[in-house]
Amino acid sequence: MPEHIAVVGATGAVGREFIDLISHRNLASKKITLLASARSAGQKIKVGSTDCTVSELTAGSFAGVDLALFSAGGNISQKYAPAAVKAGAAVIDNSSAFRMDDNVPLVIPEINPQAAKKHRGIIANPNCSTIIMAMAVWPLHRVNPVTRMVVSTYQAASGAGAAAMHELETQSQDVLDGKDAKPQVLPFQVAFNLFNHNSAIDDSGYNTEEIKMIKETHKIFGDNSIRITATCVRVPVFRAHSESINLTFERPMTPDEARELLQNSRGVTVVDQRDPQHFPMPIEASGIDDCLVGRIRQDVSQPDGRGIDLFVCGDQIRKGAALNAIQIAELISA
Ligand code: A2P
Q: HSE-up of 108 (CA within 13 Å, CB side)?
């Protein structure tokens, strides 16, 4: 068990969830150091029942730290994760900075726990949409390989951080009050609207989030042959992502088989009631550990029975970020 944990980005949406999970799960440590920008230095945050003071992150912040949880963006990870490793800490990084580095494991504990053991100081936490998709697809893929996946996401504001969640709240109120919505954190009005995921578009026309989902899934599943395409969209939901997933398998798969495999999988709850309708909803996925999977049905466009459609919702801050990182920490500390 780590003696001293540092949380980098402690004032952010994921950072606060780290703190909550550290207090409630099996990762008790003697000391916790909360780090953020100079703007937040001196701020008090409760860890369990104790008030802890946030310090400014510097290269010298990691003396004596054995586990550092980073969630302050890729630039901060690039700059400070090596300093944490040099100081002797294992780093679990929630940013995209090291995910595709061949020397850095990219881990979802339910899927490739063995990869975590090979780390050389840094372990990357996958992208939130990738984790939520992989949780639903892996239990099926491991018994009947998926040859093609088509995913469309409905991503919550939380994925863009605490400030974006606040923007959704204030904009919604402004619009209801008859005022103009003023986008500041997200590029367009998020209240009562949806738009292409706010990441850069490359020459192929894909946005960065879509490329992450494709490449990271290949790395986590250890299979670059799966043909994957994605469309990522930001929607006016606070904190759980939803995804429509269409799968093609090597061999036929029935909805009953898929349902049974998912029902027996860790970290997944099947919510698939047709009458009265009860399927996964972001509001029911928020604040819980499991990803909810439902709308499990045969894809009628694939008459050979090799197609299955799913709908999944997962808490972006929890399993999509902080919980997965904490599970990795528990894995390497066991
Ligand atoms: P701060 O609150 O001091 O800006 P979110 O993903 O919710 O937007 O949170 C981002 C986290 O990253 C916050 O804790 C934020 O701290 C932290 N952060 C942003 N810039 C820096 C920086 N230059 N140095 C350290 N932490 C930073």
A: 29
Domain that holds residue 8: 4-126+321-333
pLDDT at 1 over 90: no
Pocket test for ligand 1, best of 8, 37, 165 (most atoms within 8 A of CB): 37
- For residues 95 and 168, membership in a common domain is answered with no
Query: What strands lie across the sheet with 268-270, from one edge to the other?
Result: 195-196, 227-234, 146-155, 240-249, 307-315, 291-298, 268-270
Q: How far is the CA of 101 from the centre of ligand 1 (A)?
A: 24
The structural domain count of the chain equals: 2
12 Cα: distance to centroid of ligand 1 (angstroms):
6
Q: pLDDT grade, residue 84 (50/70/90)?
A: very high
Q: Residue 251 is part of a domain; what is its CATH number?
A: 3.30.360.10
Is it the case that residue 26 has pLDDT exceeding 80? no
The mean per-residue pLDDT over the stretch 117-146 comes to 98
Which tens digits make up the pLDDT trace of 51-64? 999 999 999 999 99
Question: Ligand 1 centre and the CA of 229: distance in Å?
Answer: 32
Beta bridge partners of 214: none
